[in-house]
């Protein structure tokens, strides 16, 4: 399976998935806004989400333009590998900080 073919298959799922994540996260935040806002892990999670969003924007605006060329390349371009690494790191931060919120939300938030 080529990179461009896989990308075309997954792309239609990205926007609806992001919408579901944003709606469910907003609903949870609305129920615990004051406790969450004071929690350091909530702020780390928001920073991770911002980094992930900026990384996706940069990828779609600049890196994705040469996607078809990747199918024939023996390794992915450096920019694509950096974008992948930053994405994994950002989402790992979001996931871990999100888990830590549940452990610290009612223990003083620090």
What does it look like?
This protein has 110 residues and is mostly helical. 79% of the residues lie in helices and 0% in strands. It is built from five helices and no strands. α3 packs antiparallel against α5. It is elongated and about 55 Å long.
What topology does this entry show?
Layout: H1 3-31, H2 33-37, H3 40-61, H4 67-70, H5 78-104
Helix pairs in contact: 3-5
Quick description:
This protein is 79% helix and 0% strand. It has helices spanning 3-31, 33-37, 40-61, 67-70, 78-104.
Give the strand content: under 5%
Which blocks of ≥5 consecutive residues have pLDDT under 50? Answer: none
Query: How much helix is in the residues?
Result: over 70%
Question: What is the approximate shape?
Answer: elongated
Total helical elements: 5
The overall average pLDDT, rounded, is: 90
Task: List its salient traits.
single chain; 110 residues; mainly alpha; 79% helix
């Amino acid at each position: 399976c080529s990179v461009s073919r896989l990308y075309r298959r997954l792309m239609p799922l990205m926007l609806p998935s992001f919408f579901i994540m944003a709606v469910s996260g907003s609903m949870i935040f609305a129920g615990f806004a004051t406790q969450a806002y004071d929690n350091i892990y909530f702020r780390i999670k928001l920073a991770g989400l911002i980094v992930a969003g900026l990384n996706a924007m940069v990828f779609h605006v600049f890196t994705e333009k040469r996607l078809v060329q990747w199918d024939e390349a023996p390794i992915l371009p450096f920019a694509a590998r950096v974008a992948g690494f930053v994405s994994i790191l950002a989402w790992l931060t979001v996931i871990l900080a999100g888990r830590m919120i549940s452990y610290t939300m009612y223990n003083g938030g620090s």
